[in-house]
Each structure stands twice: as C-alpha cells, then as structure tokens.
Amino acid sequence: MEETTLNNDIHVKLTERFGEKVTAVSEPYGLLTFVTYKDVIINVLSHLKEELKFNFLTDITAVHYPGKDHGIAVVYHLHNMVEKVRIRIKVFISEQNPTIPTATTVWKGANWMERETYDLFGVKFEGHPDLRRILNMDDLGVHPMLKQYPLEDPNRVDKKDEFFGR
Amino acid sequence: MNHNHPVFTDNDPQSELVTLNLGPTHPATHGVFQNVLQLDGERIVSGVSTIGYIHRAFEKIAEHRPFYQITPLTDRLNYCSSPINNMGWHMTVEKLLNIQMPKRVDYLRVIVMELSRIADHIICNTIIGQDTGATTTFLYLFQFREHIYEIFEEVCGARLTTNIGRIGGFERDFNDIAFAKINKFLKEFPVALKEFENLLTRNRIFIDRTAGVAEVTKETALEYSWTGPLLRATGVDYDVRVSDPYSSYQDFDFEVPVGTSGDIYDRYLVRNEEMWQSLRIIEQAVEKLKSEPKGIFHADVPEFYLPPKQEVYNNMEALIYHFKIVMGEIDAPKAEVYHAVEGGNGELGFYLINDGGRTPYRLHFRRPSFINYQMFAPMSEGMLLSDAIINMSSMNIIAGELDA
C-alpha cells in the first residue's frame, strides 16, 4: 500500500534509529503499523514519545493467534495529537512464556491497560507495579480471551463455519 | 483480595486509621464501584479501586457474533449515550467495508449523536449538583433527558439501549413527529439550560465545593491517557470530532471549550459549554438537512444493508442479500481497522480485526471510563472524603463502560 508522506517520514526515522528491528511495515486504512521485538519495545515507545512527539498512549491490548510460534500479539496504539497521526505497534511473543517489559515506565496510564491485558490474555508485563487481575475474579484460573476457551458449549455444531461453506 | 467480603487493608489494632469500604453498592457512587479507602479522620490516606462487578465479557461475546449483532452489545457500554456507541460501531464496520455515507445520513447521525451527548452531560452535571446538595437543579434539567429519549423512541423505538441505526445507515427515516420533537427540544432546552446555569454557575456554595478541588495538570492528564471533557478541562483542546472528523463533522461550525485548572468546577463548565455547542451543531444539522434530497436514510449498499421485508418476499436479490447478511456471510476485507469517536466521556475506540469469518477475529473497545478511572484512587490521596465523592461524579464514570 502506498504510504502518505507523513507516515513515510516516521517510517524513515524509525528505520534510521532501529534498523532491522522495525519490520512488516504496512498502512491499513492510513494507520502506520509495524512489528517490533520485545527487547526493544520500550526503547521504541520512548523514542516515539520523546523524539517523534507521540505523546499520547491510546490503548494497549493483545490478540491471540493460536498455533503460531509467537502466538500472542501485544498491540499498542499511540497518538501524536499535534500532527494528528496515529501509529500501531505490534510485538509477537511466545504463548508458552508470554512476557514483555511494562510500558508503565513510559506512561503511567499503561497501568490498567496492562492489567486488563494480563487478565484477559495472561501476558506478564515485567516490572509492572501491580500486576493483578482487574475485571475477572482473582481465582478464575484461566485467561478467558485466549482462543482455546469457548464461549458456548463446544459440542454445539450448528454454528461451525464449515456448515456455511467456509 | 477476596471480592465477596469487606476488605481490610490495615490490620494494626493500634492504628489511628479507619478502613472504609466505599461501595460496591453505595448510594453516593452512582454505580457499582468499590474503593477501599484508608481514612485519617475525614481525609483519605490511600485508596484501592476494585472494578469488574458488571464485567460481561463483551469482547469475548463479540468474537462469536456477526457484525450486526454486536450493535446491541455496544449499547451496554456507556448506556447513558448508547447512540454514540452504536454509531461508532457502525462507522468502524463502514470504514472496514469502505462504504461512503450520503450527506443526509451523516447529518441525521450527527443529530442523534449530539442529542445523546447532551443527555450524557445532563446526567453528569446535574449529578454534580445533586452531590453538592443542589437537588433542585437535578430536577429542573433532568426532564430534558426524558425529552431526548422521546426523540430516540420516535427514531428507533427504544429509549435507553437504543440499537439505533444499521451498518450502512438508519433502519428507517426520521418521521415528522421526530423532527417536530427535535425542533421543540431546540426551542425549550436553551431556556432550561440557562436557568440551570443561573442556579449553579455563580452559586457561592457550589463554587466553594468544586473550585480548586481535584485539580489535574495537563501533563498528568496526558500521562494517564485521559480524554474527553476531563482532558479538555485541564486545557488540552483534544476532541476527536475536530482532530479526526467522522460523519461530516468538518461541515459544522462549533467550538471546543477548554478549562484551565482541570478541577471539578472546570469540568462542570466544559460540559455545560459542550451542551451549548451540541445545540449549535444540531441547529446547523437541521438547517443543512433542508437542502438535502429527502427520503435518503441509508447508503446504497445492498450487500451490507438489510433490505425491507416486503422486498425479501418478492425479489430474489433481496432474499439472497437478506440471507447472507443475517447469516453473517457478507464479504468483508481481511484487515484491521481502528476507529475512534468522541463519546460522552472521551475517545471511544473500536479496534476490529477481521479474518474473513462470520464474526470478528478480535474486537477491542477502548473505553474512556475505564482509562479515566484509573486515576481516581491516586488522585484521592489527601482529599476529603466528601470531595472524593463529587470528584467521582464529575468524572462521570459509567459502570457499563468501565467493565465492558
């Protein structure tokens, strides 16, 4: 997809600074998206905050892709309010050992967003000041947004995709 | 921490501090929130917020619903301004599907969204009055929320959880009664709002209770990802309607009010001014509608918009589209999209990942109440208990949006 000039600038600046660590750059619906790695994610976030003026952390969440090597994607949405640009950063981490450094060192507001992500996906944010469950009860035992936990009775067959030609 | 029992954070019998369980059901909190506070006399020493009492796992449920069945879930996020959530969700899917709305639909949506913003702010501001002891103002203005709900009832048949509109437009056109009610509202509401302001804005008791209480700086507000009237009260002019216009907001002439100190009084003033600006927007929208072709209330996208029932029985294409839409078989691009709207409390974002299945692969709601509320406990430290109560009402935390 063709990049707009503003997004292109950001892309060039990020590649200058982080080189090969910025991969899979795309621009779905005009929103610059790239993948990076968990050893540099805090550097990337602080660089974006301090140097490129992405002063606002919009959201942190996660997505589960079961069966892949790195099956959990932690997704950050940042916002540059002055130039009105948004950016999306993804970090793929392993399902067996889902750890990633905490972003609370960059934004205090990351606290509850990370607690929610931990609660729903089991992502352990290293260095988080208070990593407890937030929405579910403490003794739930599972992280319910992972795809292996069905919403309804798993024996139910009338909603399976193969019955609809998929 | 066991959620089923009162929580004591301080077990020292010699301690001078008192542990107070404010919530989960406390008449002063207007919702299901629990805060365990350590009090030294009337002053709060520390607090711990516990949320999740009405967590309904909407993000999980949404992974098992076709797009059009997710609208009723969004109703129940911020149920004080459901139409904004509904429209936000419709626009997210329309962005995914690359559907352009006709101008008339955009303007109708703007009317509905601004009316619900007024309803939302009425609740918050009258509740601040109520909590500072001014019940009269609450009773004066609250009836206009009823009038707004009557308009919604005329447009979609429901009042609180509206499920208003469809992906691709509205389910039916606004009728004449709806327009008559909107015009009546535009005529009567300014008078009442002026009266409300006369009662509160320069009221000595009200100013004493709210001015200088719970002040927040710009830097702190941005650090904690605040949005909406709370952020604007601190002096940051961020409004999604202006910075990222959706639904033709760029066609309208309105101002974004900002405060200076971020205290409760500023939040009250910002919300009041936003109601005036919303009125201006609705007036402009009603005026603009007069020059738009009549009778258009949805985009011409038969593959995504449910056909009228009589068509389904008489027309083969309509039957096919009806079947495909109801079974969730619409052809949506495999992509991910983030769309934000300015909700009553701030930036309401929808992060949708579609993998071509019948349901979203992942849907995440960026809920402003959830993100705004995390500052409540830290900012309560050192505050009087009675101030913390009005601080909570001025943050307009809606339990449904907090817990999703």
Automatic annotation (TrEMBL), chain A:
UniProtKB keywords:
Cell membrane, Membrane, NAD, Quinone, Translocase, Transport
Enzyme Commission code(s) on record: 7.1.1.-
Topology relative to the lipid bilayer, per the entry, is: Peripheral membrane protein
- Compartments, record wording: Cell membrane
Q: Name one GO cellular component term.
A: plasma membrane
Pfam families, per this entry?
Complex1_30kDa
Does the UniProt entry include the keyword Cytoplasm? Answer: no
List residues of the NADH:ubiquinone oxidoreductase 30kDa subunit domain.
38-153
Which reactions does this protein catalyse?
Answer: a quinone + NADH + 5 H(+)(in) = a quinol + NAD(+) + 4 H(+)(out)
* Entry's Gene Ontology molecular function annotations: NADH dehydrogenase (quinone) (non-electrogenic) activity; NADH dehydrogenase (ubiquinone) activity; quinone binding
Q: What class of enzyme is it?
A: translocase
Stated family: Belongs to the complex I 30 kDa subunit family.
Q: What does this protein do?
A: NDH-1 shuttles electrons from NADH, via FMN and iron-sulfur (Fe-S) centers, to quinones in the respiratory chain. The immediate electron acceptor for the enzyme in this species is believed to be a menaquinone. Couples the redox reaction to proton translocation (for every two electrons transferred, four hydrogen ions are translocated across the cytoplasmic membrane), and thus conserves the redox energy in a proton gradient.
Assembly, per entry: NDH-1 is composed of 14 different subunits. Subunits NuoB, C, D, E, F, and G constitute the peripheral sector of the complex.
Q: What is this protein called?
A: NADH-quinone oxidoreductase subunit C
Q: Which organism is it from?
A: Pedobacter miscanthi
From TrEMBL, chain B:
Q: Which InterPro entries does this chain map to?
A: NADH_Q_OxRdtase_suD, NADH_UbQ_OxRdtase_49kDa_CS, NDH1_su_D/H, NiFe-Hase_large
Q: Where do the NADH-quinone oxidoreductase subunit D domain residues begin and end?
A: 131-403
Record-listed E.C. numbers:
7.1.1.-
| Pfam families listed in its UniProt record | Complex1_49kDa (PF00346)
The terms describing its cellular component in GO are: plasma membrane
Where does it reside? Cell membrane
Q: What are the entry keywords?
A: Cell membrane, Membrane, NAD, Oxidoreductase, Quinone, Translocase, Transport
PROSITE patterns in the cross-refs: COMPLEX1_49K (PS00535)
Q: How does it sit in the membrane?
A: Peripheral membrane protein
Listed under catalytic activity are:
a quinone + NADH + 5 H(+)(in) = a quinol + NAD(+) + 4 H(+)(out)
NCBIfam families for this protein = PRK06075.1
Sum up the protein's function in the record's words. Answer: NDH-1 shuttles electrons from NADH, via FMN and iron-sulfur (Fe-S) centers, to quinones in the respiratory chain. The immediate electron acceptor for the enzyme in this species is believed to be a menaquinone. Couples the redox reaction to proton translocation (for every two electrons transferred, four hydrogen ions are translocated across the cytoplasmic membrane), and thus conserves the redox energy in a proton gradient.
How is the quaternary structure described? NDH-1 is composed of 14 different subunits. Subunits NuoB, C, D, E, F, and G constitute the peripheral sector of the complex.
The entry's family comment says:
Belongs to the complex I 49 kDa subunit family.
Full protein name: NADH-quinone oxidoreductase subunit D
The species this protein was found in: Pedobacter miscanthi
- What gene name is listed for this protein? nuoD
